[in-house]
Amino acid sequence: MSDFDSPADTPQPSGHRRSTKRSRYDDSEASTPRDSSPDELADHQPYRSRLSTRRDSGPRRRAHSSDGSVDELDHTYHERNRDRNRDRSSSSSTRDSSHSSPRPPSPPTYRPLKLNYQLKFILKGHRKGVAQVRFSPDGRWIASCSADGTIKIWDAATGKHMRTLEGHLAGVSTIAWSPDSNTIASGSDDKTIRLWHRTTGKAYPATLAGHHNYVYSLAFSPKGNMLVSGSYDEAVFLWDLRARRLMRSLPAHSDPVGGVDFIRDGTLVCSCSTDGLTRVWDTATGQCLRTLVHEDNAPVTTVRFSPNGRYILAFTLDSCVRLWDYVSGTVKKTYQGHVNKKYSLGGAFGVSGSDGFIVSGSEDGDIVFWDVRTKDVVQRAEKAHEGVVCWVDTSPGSDATVVSGGLDGTVKIWVNIPEGGEVVDGMNGVKLEQDGVDADMVDVKIEDRDGYDDTLRDDASMDGRRSPNRGRGRNGNSRSHDRMDED
């Protein structure tokens, strides 16, 4: 917001009368904050223009009376002139206050964000660690994937288990929802990507194959016609979903690709890797438009565009979450307070009322919430899971519901409860005393498959660093990758 110049704030030369010209509007670039973050507290207030006081510029005349001397008349003139000036000044001040708009009130003091997320449902059924959990775009469904090789669909309002999707030959590392909430894409350690009907639980006939290593991250384009995938083979693939074919292969990184995401208009894709780089790509040309690297060069495991598309949220293995302005290539905010040294953790943006927050899992079992503006930890759900909280997601809209998945194999749903309230079942209003689990959600039959070992690979390393791990199925072989020179 541009500022107005105020005569009261402009020093005047001594002996110089205040100008009668109206103050001018300053529309220079210096007065307009171009790259300010939406979460920064900036006090840009327009200054009120004042009407200048009208002055009498005519020559001063002596008044003569028939019954007074010159000295008396001169004294009388000065007395009357002072009275006249006082009256004129008073009336001018009255006109000024009546014609000028009142000074806008100062902005209210920022009230710290208050959150009180409490556990509502515990969803059981996965037999091994949960790698990712995702809300559908319409907020009605939750999908979870696991090292047990399955994807499960849950009702977000009731916690009811709806379907189990089976077909991958190894652990499933990543899932993504189509914009219409009717299709789920899944990426697996079997190097393939599958598409599933939500309503039937059946897989589409065509499997997307092309990666030479584990498929680690997926994201749909906003129109649903493209899919981006990141893999341990260090490449980023763009898929044409109408033709079910590979559109473009981007030689993106020199280490495994940890995360990918589409911007809200579909024109850009971001990717990250344990090589410490975050890159922004033009989806039409495949050109790398920007490379972001922090001075600490910490491995980047997950990236997400902000809802307004102006920033990228990057999760790194130095226990930091950084908000990047990718246009200027600078870090706007750094959020700390969780533990992330070894595993590839995921989080999300959320909204509570009109205030924004960021939420992430932690390797100590906590879920951590930050105020977007102040970077303060506004809530910590301690021991939310037994062990690492691998992934956290938020539902669309205000007063977001939160879902989490962990290495303990459970999926948990959290709701924000006002002070003095209590957690209630969304269906019948009865306070929950037990886990929100149906009997058919616990005893899920998982057949053993020959040809792979889906135990956790805690001993894998890359250039001396612990391998990012979401509790997925692995083949047990350690892998190292040669590092390339950074851009």
TrEMBL record:
Q: What does the UniProt keyword field contain?
A: Repeat, WD repeat
Q: Enumerate the SUPFAM superfamilies for this protein.
A: WD40 repeat-like (SSF50978)
* SMART domains in the record: WD40
Bias (Low complexity) occurs at 90-101
Q: Where is this region: Disordered?
A: 1-112, 448-487
Superkingdom per UniProt = Eukaryota
Asked whether the keyword Transcription regulation is assigned, the reply is: no
The residue spans of each WD repeat are 123-164, 165-206, 208-249, 250-291, 293-334, 357-380, 382-414
Any single Pfam family the record assigns to this protein: Beta-prop_WDR5
UniProt cross-references to InterPro entries, sorted A to Z: Beta-prop_WDR5-like (IPR059122), WD40/YVTN_repeat-like_dom_sf (IPR015943), WD40_PAC1 (IPR020472), WD40_repeat_CS (IPR019775), WD40_repeat_dom_sf (IPR036322), WD40_rpt (IPR001680)
The WDR5-like beta-propeller domain, residue ranges: 123-414
Compositionally skewed regions (Basic and acidic residues) per UniProt: 72-89, 448-466
Specify the protein name.
WD40 repeat-like protein
